[in-house]
Amino acid sequence: MTGTFTRLGTAVLAAAAFTAAPAAAQNIRIGGLATLDGPFVVLGQEAFRAMELAFEEANYSAGGKKIDWVKESSDGRPDIALSKARKLIEQDKVDILIGPMSGGEGLAIKEYAKSVPNRTFVNGFSAAQEATLVSPSPNFFRFSADGAQWQAGLGTHAYDTKGYRNVAVVSGDYSFGYTQVLGFMTEFCARGGKVPEKIWVPNGTKDFSSTIARIPDKVDAVYVMLGGADAVNFLTQYDQSGSTTPLIAGSNTLDQTVLSTKGPFQRRLVGIPSAHMIADIDEPGYRAFVDKYKKRFPDGLGAPSAPFYGYYVATKAALTALDQVGGDVSGDQSKLRAALSKVELDTAVGPVKLDENRQAIANIFVTEVARRDDGSLYSKAIKKIEGVNQTLGQPVEAFVARGVPSRDNPSCP
Asked: Measured between alpha carbons, how far is 215 from 197 in angstroms, rounded to an integer?
Protein backbone atom coordinates (compact mmCIF):
# COMPACT_ATOMS: atom_id res chain seq x y z
CA MET A 1 0.00 0.00 0.00
CA THR A 2 3.01 2.27 0.41
CA GLY A 3 3.03 5.02 -2.15
CA THR A 4 -0.22 4.00 -3.81
CA PHE A 5 -2.69 6.52 -5.14
CA THR A 6 -6.37 5.78 -4.65
CA ARG A 7 -8.71 7.60 -6.98
CA LEU A 8 -11.95 8.55 -5.20
CA GLY A 9 -14.84 9.68 -7.36
CA THR A 10 -13.23 10.06 -10.81
CA ALA A 11 -11.00 8.08 -13.11
CA VAL A 12 -8.67 10.79 -14.39
CA LEU A 13 -5.48 11.77 -12.56
CA ALA A 14 -5.07 15.54 -12.36
CA ALA A 15 -1.69 16.65 -13.67
CA ALA A 16 -1.82 20.22 -12.42
CA ALA A 17 1.38 21.57 -10.90
CA PHE A 18 1.57 22.35 -7.18
CA THR A 19 0.77 26.00 -6.49
CA ALA A 20 -0.03 28.00 -3.38
CA ALA A 21 -3.44 28.86 -4.85
CA PRO A 22 -5.05 25.87 -6.65
CA ALA A 23 -7.61 26.59 -9.34
CA ALA A 24 -11.22 26.67 -8.16
CA ALA A 25 -12.18 23.56 -10.13
CA GLN A 26 -9.21 21.48 -8.94
CA ASN A 27 -9.98 18.44 -6.83
CA ILE A 28 -8.97 18.43 -3.18
CA ARG A 29 -6.00 16.18 -2.49
CA ILE A 30 -5.80 14.57 0.95
CA GLY A 31 -2.80 12.57 2.10
CA GLY A 32 -2.99 9.73 4.59
CA LEU A 33 0.07 8.66 6.59
CA ALA A 34 -0.02 5.56 8.80
CA THR A 35 2.16 2.56 9.71
CA LEU A 36 2.13 -0.50 7.48
CA ASP A 37 5.62 -1.60 8.52
CA GLY A 38 7.20 -2.21 11.93
CA PRO A 39 5.46 -3.21 15.19
CA PHE A 40 2.32 -1.12 14.57
CA VAL A 41 1.17 -2.71 11.29
CA VAL A 42 -2.31 -3.64 12.51
CA LEU A 43 -2.81 -0.10 13.81
CA GLY A 44 -1.96 1.28 10.38
CA GLN A 45 -4.42 -1.04 8.68
CA GLU A 46 -7.12 0.26 10.99
CA ALA A 47 -6.14 3.85 10.21
CA PHE A 48 -6.66 3.46 6.48
CA ARG A 49 -9.91 1.59 7.03
CA ALA A 50 -11.12 4.59 9.03
CA MET A 51 -10.21 7.09 6.34
CA GLU A 52 -11.83 4.91 3.69
CA LEU A 53 -15.11 4.73 5.60
CA ALA A 54 -15.16 8.47 6.26
CA PHE A 55 -14.56 9.23 2.57
CA GLU A 56 -17.25 6.76 1.50
CA GLU A 57 -19.76 8.38 3.82
CA ALA A 58 -18.97 11.74 2.20
CA ASN A 59 -19.39 10.25 -1.28
CA TYR A 60 -15.72 11.04 -1.92
CA SER A 61 -16.33 14.77 -1.91
CA ALA A 62 -16.29 17.82 0.35
CA GLY A 63 -17.32 21.41 -0.20
CA GLY A 64 -18.63 20.54 -3.65
CA LYS A 65 -15.29 19.13 -4.84
CA LYS A 66 -14.06 15.61 -5.45
CA ILE A 67 -11.33 14.15 -3.27
CA ASP A 68 -8.10 12.50 -4.38
CA TRP A 69 -6.60 10.31 -1.65
CA VAL A 70 -2.86 9.60 -1.57
CA LYS A 71 -1.58 7.02 0.95
CA GLU A 72 1.89 6.62 2.39
CA SER A 73 3.24 4.21 4.99
CA SER A 74 5.75 4.73 7.76
CA ASP A 75 7.11 2.23 10.28
CA GLY A 76 6.80 4.16 13.54
CA ARG A 77 10.14 5.94 13.16
CA PRO A 78 10.17 9.76 13.06
CA ASP A 79 12.72 10.01 10.23
CA ILE A 80 10.71 7.73 7.95
CA ALA A 81 7.45 9.49 8.80
CA LEU A 82 9.06 12.85 8.01
CA SER A 83 10.35 11.57 4.67
CA LYS A 84 6.90 10.26 3.71
CA ALA A 85 5.20 13.47 4.83
CA ARG A 86 7.57 15.51 2.67
CA LYS A 87 6.74 13.28 -0.28
CA LEU A 88 3.01 13.73 0.24
CA ILE A 89 3.30 17.52 0.50
CA GLU A 90 6.08 18.29 -1.95
CA GLN A 91 5.72 15.59 -4.62
CA ASP A 92 2.12 14.41 -4.39
CA LYS A 93 0.94 18.00 -3.76
CA VAL A 94 -1.69 17.15 -1.14
CA ASP A 95 -3.66 20.04 0.34
CA ILE A 96 -4.26 18.33 3.70
CA LEU A 97 -2.23 15.61 5.41
CA ILE A 98 -3.95 13.29 7.92
CA GLY A 99 -1.56 11.35 10.17
CA PRO A 100 0.74 10.08 11.59
CA MET A 101 0.35 7.10 13.91
CA SER A 102 3.08 7.15 16.56
CA GLY A 103 4.21 9.72 19.14
CA GLY A 104 7.71 10.47 17.85
CA GLU A 105 6.36 10.63 14.32
CA GLY A 106 3.88 13.28 15.40
CA LEU A 107 6.62 15.48 16.85
CA ALA A 108 8.57 15.30 13.59
CA ILE A 109 5.50 16.12 11.50
CA LYS A 110 4.54 19.03 13.80
CA GLU A 111 7.95 20.62 13.26
CA TYR A 112 7.78 20.00 9.51
CA ALA A 113 4.34 21.64 9.39
CA LYS A 114 5.95 24.92 10.47
CA SER A 115 7.99 24.94 7.25
CA VAL A 116 4.92 24.62 5.00
CA PRO A 117 2.45 27.11 6.51
CA ASN A 118 0.17 27.03 3.45
CA ARG A 119 -0.78 23.41 4.05
CA THR A 120 -2.96 21.89 6.80
CA PHE A 121 -2.02 18.92 8.98
CA VAL A 122 -4.61 16.92 10.97
CA ASN A 123 -3.09 14.45 13.41
CA GLY A 124 -4.16 10.83 12.98
CA PHE A 125 -3.38 8.89 16.17
CA SER A 126 0.00 10.22 17.35
CA ALA A 127 -0.39 11.20 21.00
CA ALA A 128 2.88 12.70 22.27
CA GLN A 129 1.90 15.53 24.59
CA GLU A 130 4.34 18.14 23.33
CA ALA A 131 3.05 17.90 19.74
CA THR A 132 0.47 20.53 20.68
CA LEU A 133 1.35 21.67 24.21
CA VAL A 134 4.92 22.81 23.50
CA SER A 135 5.65 25.25 20.65
CA PRO A 136 2.54 24.26 18.69
CA SER A 137 2.34 24.79 14.93
CA PRO A 138 -0.63 26.94 13.81
CA ASN A 139 -1.42 24.53 10.97
CA PHE A 140 -1.31 21.31 13.05
CA PHE A 141 -4.63 20.11 14.56
CA ARG A 142 -5.33 17.15 16.85
CA PHE A 143 -8.94 16.00 17.31
CA SER A 144 -7.99 13.10 19.59
CA ALA A 145 -6.73 13.40 23.15
CA ASP A 146 -3.02 13.01 23.84
CA GLY A 147 -1.47 10.07 25.66
CA ALA A 148 -1.55 11.74 29.09
CA GLN A 149 -5.23 12.63 28.67
CA TRP A 150 -5.92 9.00 27.75
CA GLN A 151 -4.83 7.98 31.26
CA ALA A 152 -7.22 10.28 33.13
CA GLY A 153 -8.80 8.40 36.02
CA LEU A 154 -6.51 5.37 35.84
CA GLY A 155 -4.03 6.40 38.53
CA THR A 156 -6.86 7.21 40.93
CA HIS A 157 -8.58 3.90 40.11
CA ALA A 158 -5.37 1.94 40.73
CA TYR A 159 -4.82 3.62 44.11
CA ASP A 160 -8.36 3.99 45.46
CA THR A 161 -10.18 0.99 43.97
CA LYS A 162 -7.44 -1.57 43.40
CA GLY A 163 -5.52 -0.58 46.53
CA TYR A 164 -2.13 -0.51 44.78
CA ARG A 165 0.56 1.52 46.54
CA ASN A 166 3.78 0.49 44.77
CA VAL A 167 3.74 0.04 40.98
CA ALA A 168 6.62 -0.73 38.62
CA VAL A 169 6.56 0.66 35.07
CA VAL A 170 7.44 -1.09 31.81
CA SER A 171 7.11 1.21 28.80
CA GLY A 172 8.22 1.84 25.26
CA ASP A 173 11.23 4.13 25.26
CA TYR A 174 9.83 6.98 23.15
CA SER A 175 7.75 10.13 23.43
CA PHE A 176 4.33 8.47 23.54
CA GLY A 177 5.47 6.07 26.25
CA TYR A 178 6.76 8.99 28.33
CA THR A 179 3.45 10.79 27.82
CA GLN A 180 1.35 7.83 28.95
CA VAL A 181 3.49 7.22 32.00
CA LEU A 182 3.19 10.89 32.93
CA GLY A 183 -0.59 10.68 32.65
CA PHE A 184 -0.76 7.63 34.92
CA MET A 185 1.80 8.84 37.46
CA THR A 186 0.32 12.33 37.74
CA GLU A 187 -2.74 10.91 39.50
CA PHE A 188 -1.18 7.85 41.11
CA CYS A 189 1.63 9.76 42.79
CA ALA A 190 -0.70 12.58 43.84
CA ARG A 191 -2.77 10.00 45.73
CA GLY A 192 0.35 8.78 47.55
CA GLY A 193 1.48 5.96 45.26
CA LYS A 194 5.14 5.11 44.59
CA VAL A 195 6.95 3.96 41.42
CA PRO A 196 10.16 2.22 42.57
CA GLU A 197 11.28 1.12 39.08
CA LYS A 198 10.78 2.36 35.50
CA ILE A 199 11.99 0.01 32.74
CA TRP A 200 12.23 1.48 29.22
CA VAL A 201 12.35 -0.81 26.18
CA PRO A 202 12.90 0.00 22.48
CA ASN A 203 10.05 -0.33 20.00
CA GLY A 204 10.26 -3.62 18.15
CA THR A 205 11.58 -5.61 21.13
CA LYS A 206 10.89 -9.33 20.70
CA ASP A 207 12.57 -10.85 23.76
CA PHE A 208 11.26 -9.40 27.03
CA SER A 209 12.87 -11.98 29.33
CA SER A 210 15.43 -9.54 30.75
CA THR A 211 12.75 -6.86 31.14
CA ILE A 212 10.48 -9.20 33.10
CA ALA A 213 13.42 -10.30 35.25
CA ARG A 214 14.04 -6.67 36.25
CA ILE A 215 10.55 -6.14 37.68
CA PRO A 216 10.89 -5.84 41.48
CA ASP A 217 9.36 -8.64 43.54
CA LYS A 218 7.74 -6.39 46.11
CA VAL A 219 5.38 -4.30 43.98
CA ASP A 220 1.60 -4.44 44.00
CA ALA A 221 1.26 -4.22 40.21
CA VAL A 222 3.10 -3.51 36.95
CA TYR A 223 2.00 -0.68 34.69
CA VAL A 224 2.71 -1.73 31.09
CA MET A 225 2.68 0.69 28.15
CA LEU A 226 3.44 -1.15 24.93
CA GLY A 227 1.52 -1.36 21.67
CA GLY A 228 0.91 -3.65 18.72
CA ALA A 229 3.29 -6.59 18.36
CA ASP A 230 5.34 -5.33 21.32
CA ALA A 231 2.31 -5.64 23.60
CA VAL A 232 1.48 -9.14 22.33
CA ASN A 233 5.08 -10.30 22.79
CA PHE A 234 5.30 -8.92 26.33
CA LEU A 235 1.93 -10.29 27.43
CA THR A 236 2.79 -13.71 25.97
CA GLN A 237 6.14 -13.87 27.74
CA TYR A 238 4.76 -12.44 30.97
CA ASP A 239 2.16 -15.21 31.00
CA GLN A 240 4.87 -17.80 30.31
CA SER A 241 7.00 -16.42 33.15
CA GLY A 242 4.39 -17.49 35.68
CA SER A 243 4.42 -14.13 37.46
CA THR A 244 1.31 -13.47 39.51
CA THR A 245 1.85 -9.72 39.93
CA PRO A 246 -1.24 -7.92 38.56
CA LEU A 247 -0.99 -5.68 35.51
CA ILE A 248 -2.26 -2.19 34.79
CA ALA A 249 -2.37 -1.42 31.10
CA GLY A 250 -1.50 1.67 29.14
CA SER A 251 -4.01 2.57 26.46
CA ASN A 252 -2.38 0.76 23.52
CA THR A 253 -1.44 -2.30 25.58
CA LEU A 254 -5.03 -3.54 25.60
CA ASP A 255 -6.39 -1.79 22.53
CA GLN A 256 -8.81 -3.85 20.45
CA THR A 257 -5.95 -4.69 18.06
CA VAL A 258 -4.27 -6.58 20.92
CA LEU A 259 -7.45 -8.01 22.46
CA SER A 260 -8.33 -9.55 19.08
CA THR A 261 -4.98 -11.39 18.88
CA LYS A 262 -5.32 -15.05 19.80
CA GLY A 263 -2.97 -16.72 22.25
CA PRO A 264 -2.74 -18.34 25.69
CA PHE A 265 -1.96 -14.94 27.22
CA GLN A 266 -5.63 -13.96 26.73
CA ARG A 267 -6.58 -16.00 29.80
CA ARG A 268 -4.69 -13.47 31.97
CA LEU A 269 -6.31 -10.31 30.59
CA VAL A 270 -9.84 -10.29 32.04
CA GLY A 271 -10.15 -7.66 34.75
CA ILE A 272 -6.98 -5.71 33.91
CA PRO A 273 -7.69 -1.97 34.25
CA SER A 274 -6.76 0.60 31.63
CA ALA A 275 -8.03 3.90 30.26
CA HIS A 276 -8.57 5.32 26.79
CA MET A 277 -10.50 7.78 24.65
CA ILE A 278 -12.75 4.98 23.35
CA ALA A 279 -14.36 2.05 25.17
CA ASP A 280 -17.40 -0.20 25.00
CA ILE A 281 -20.25 1.95 26.29
CA ASP A 282 -23.93 1.07 26.33
CA GLU A 283 -25.11 4.06 24.33
CA PRO A 284 -26.89 4.18 20.93
CA GLY A 285 -24.22 6.27 19.23
CA TYR A 286 -21.46 3.83 20.10
CA ARG A 287 -23.54 0.77 19.17
CA ALA A 288 -24.28 2.33 15.78
CA PHE A 289 -20.55 3.01 15.32
CA VAL A 290 -19.71 -0.64 16.05
CA ASP A 291 -22.41 -1.90 13.69
CA LYS A 292 -21.19 0.40 10.93
CA TYR A 293 -17.62 -0.84 11.37
CA LYS A 294 -18.58 -4.52 11.34
CA LYS A 295 -20.81 -4.15 8.30
CA ARG A 296 -18.16 -2.33 6.28
CA PHE A 297 -15.21 -4.43 7.46
CA PRO A 298 -16.45 -7.97 8.17
CA ASP A 299 -12.82 -9.14 8.19
CA GLY A 300 -11.87 -6.48 10.76
CA LEU A 301 -11.60 -6.62 14.53
CA GLY A 302 -14.30 -7.40 17.07
CA ALA A 303 -14.92 -3.67 17.53
CA PRO A 304 -13.45 -0.42 16.21
CA SER A 305 -9.97 0.11 17.60
CA ALA A 306 -8.64 3.37 19.02
CA PRO A 307 -6.51 4.01 15.90
CA PHE A 308 -9.63 3.53 13.79
CA TYR A 309 -11.54 6.00 15.95
CA GLY A 310 -8.68 8.51 15.89
CA TYR A 311 -8.26 8.56 12.11
CA TYR A 312 -12.02 8.45 11.52
CA VAL A 313 -12.62 11.50 13.70
CA ALA A 314 -9.65 13.31 12.15
CA THR A 315 -10.97 12.68 8.65
CA LYS A 316 -14.52 13.69 9.59
CA ALA A 317 -13.18 16.93 11.07
CA ALA A 318 -11.28 17.75 7.88
CA LEU A 319 -14.33 17.01 5.72
CA THR A 320 -16.58 19.08 7.99
CA ALA A 321 -14.29 22.12 7.71
CA LEU A 322 -14.00 21.69 3.94
CA ASP A 323 -17.79 21.66 3.66
CA GLN A 324 -17.99 24.85 5.71
CA VAL A 325 -15.60 26.74 3.42
CA GLY A 326 -16.97 25.34 0.16
CA GLY A 327 -13.79 23.34 -0.47
CA ASP A 328 -11.64 26.46 -0.48
CA VAL A 329 -7.99 25.43 -0.05
CA SER A 330 -6.62 28.47 -1.88
CA GLY A 331 -3.89 30.84 -0.77
CA ASP A 332 -2.49 30.06 2.65
CA GLN A 333 -5.59 28.00 3.60
CA SER A 334 -6.43 30.49 6.35
CA LYS A 335 -10.17 30.08 5.73
CA LEU A 336 -9.88 26.32 6.11
CA ARG A 337 -7.85 26.54 9.29
CA ALA A 338 -10.18 29.09 10.83
CA ALA A 339 -13.10 26.74 10.20
CA LEU A 340 -11.17 23.69 11.40
CA SER A 341 -10.26 25.33 14.70
CA LYS A 342 -13.97 25.79 15.46
CA VAL A 343 -15.17 22.32 14.44
CA GLU A 344 -16.99 20.48 17.20
CA LEU A 345 -17.89 16.85 16.62
CA ASP A 346 -20.46 14.63 18.31
CA THR A 347 -18.55 11.34 18.13
CA ALA A 348 -19.55 7.81 19.08
CA VAL A 349 -18.11 8.30 22.57
CA GLY A 350 -18.97 11.94 23.17
CA PRO A 351 -18.26 15.52 22.11
CA VAL A 352 -14.86 16.69 20.87
CA LYS A 353 -13.72 20.29 20.56
CA LEU A 354 -10.34 22.02 20.34
CA ASP A 355 -8.53 24.29 22.78
CA GLU A 356 -6.40 27.32 21.88
CA ASN A 357 -3.52 25.04 20.84
CA ARG A 358 -5.81 23.10 18.47
CA GLN A 359 -5.77 20.14 20.87
CA ALA A 360 -8.83 18.00 21.62
CA ILE A 361 -10.86 18.24 24.81
CA ALA A 362 -12.75 14.96 25.10
CA ASN A 363 -14.19 12.25 27.33
CA ILE A 364 -11.90 9.53 28.69
CA PHE A 365 -12.97 6.11 29.97
CA VAL A 366 -11.48 3.96 32.71
CA THR A 367 -11.92 0.38 31.52
CA GLU A 368 -11.51 -3.25 32.47
CA VAL A 369 -11.06 -6.15 30.08
CA ALA A 370 -14.21 -8.28 29.89
CA ARG A 371 -15.26 -11.35 27.92
CA ARG A 372 -18.33 -11.57 25.70
CA ASP A 373 -20.56 -14.62 25.47
CA ASP A 374 -18.75 -15.67 22.30
CA GLY A 375 -15.43 -15.66 24.14
CA SER A 376 -14.02 -12.50 22.58
CA LEU A 377 -12.43 -9.81 24.74
CA TYR A 378 -13.31 -6.13 24.88
CA SER A 379 -12.65 -3.00 26.94
CA LYS A 380 -15.66 -2.41 29.17
CA ALA A 381 -16.10 1.14 30.40
CA ILE A 382 -16.45 1.34 34.17
CA LYS A 383 -16.11 5.10 34.57
CA LYS A 384 -16.32 8.17 32.33
CA ILE A 385 -14.31 11.33 32.95
CA GLU A 386 -15.93 14.09 30.93
CA GLY A 387 -14.20 16.91 29.07
CA VAL A 388 -10.58 16.09 29.91
CA ASN A 389 -8.25 18.88 28.82
CA GLN A 390 -4.56 18.64 28.01
CA THR A 391 -3.36 19.81 31.42
CA LEU A 392 -5.55 17.26 33.22
CA GLY A 393 -7.51 19.99 34.96
CA GLN A 394 -4.41 21.70 36.35
CA PRO A 395 -3.47 25.36 35.68
CA VAL A 396 -1.65 25.63 32.35
CA GLU A 397 1.35 27.50 33.76
CA ALA A 398 1.95 24.99 36.53
CA PHE A 399 1.50 22.01 34.23
CA VAL A 400 3.85 23.34 31.55
CA ALA A 401 6.42 24.29 34.18
CA ARG A 402 6.85 20.60 35.02
CA GLY A 403 8.58 20.14 31.66
CA VAL A 404 7.95 17.72 28.81
CA PRO A 405 7.45 14.02 29.56
CA SER A 406 10.69 12.04 29.65
CA ARG A 407 12.26 9.00 31.26
CA ASP A 408 12.65 10.97 34.49
CA ASN A 409 9.63 13.24 34.32
CA PRO A 410 7.52 12.77 36.29
CA SER A 411 8.87 11.11 39.38
CA CYS A 412 6.95 10.43 42.55
CA PRO A 413 8.06 12.79 45.35
From this structure: 7
